[in-house]
Design a protein that fits this description.
Number of helices: 7
Radius of gyration: 15 Å
CATH class: Alpha Beta
Structural class: alpha/beta
Helix content: 40-55%
Largest sheet: 6 strands, parallel
CATH architecture: 3-Layer(aba) Sandwich
Number of strands: 6
CATH superfamily: Flavin prenyltransferase-like
Length: 183
């Protein structure tokens, strides 16, 4: 299976980095595209630089619209954008495809493949909510970066793993990152 991962400049890049780590552990072929601001935020928040990201996935430059993930003929099991900035969410909602990250998201929608967006913003305004409804109407799923506490997390890593687990659930991938309710 191949999964496309997009990382934008919203805070919460730890979720994207951890998702890439887990996908690698699961033996999933990951294709990564990171916005220019996303590269900076990942480095600032996690200390992981471009070289570290390239070790986790097949790297695609955000400006390379000739990359395989820009085409519907390149088969994937879906795409996750985590964290998903409100800028990216708005562009996806409007069908804007000015860079590879946005084009890959558009491909998922047009091909009917899973597109999971993990917005990380608070508070939300009416434009954010309107754009969320638009992407959902187009077929995307929203999985906000809002960890739960019923699994009684004891660390920040437990909270991150819960959210990454929810993203993996959305892709139909088995994992043991958190204890499920009633288990």
């Amino acid at each position: 299976m191949r999964i496309v991962v997009g990382i934008t400049g919203a805070s919460g890049s730890v979720y994207g980095v951890r998702l890439l780590q887990v996908l690698k552990e699961l033996g999933v072929e990951s294709h990564l595209v990171v916005s220019q601001t996303g590269v900076e935020v990942v480095k600032y928040e996690t200390g992981v630089d471009v070289r570290g990201l390239r070790d986790l996935a097949v790297w695609h430059d955000v400006g390379d619209l000739f990359a395989p993930i820009a085409s519907g003929s390149f088969r994937t099991g879906g795409m996750v954008i985590v964290p998903c900035s409100m800028h990216t969410l708005g562009a996806v909602a409007q069908g804007v495809t000015e860079n590879l990250l946005l084009r890959a998201a558009d491909v998922m929608l047009k091909e009917g493949r899973p597109l999971l967006l993990a917005p990380r913003e608070a508070p939300l305004n009416k434009i954010h909510v309107s754009n969320m409804l638009k992407v959902m109407d187009a077929g995307a799923r929203l999985i906000p970066a809002s960890p739960a506490f019923y699994h009684r997390p004891s660390s920040l890593q437990d909270l991150v793993d819960f959210m990454v687990g929810k993203l993996l659930d959305g892709l139909g991938l088995e994992h043991n990152l958190y204890q499920r309710w009633g288990e």
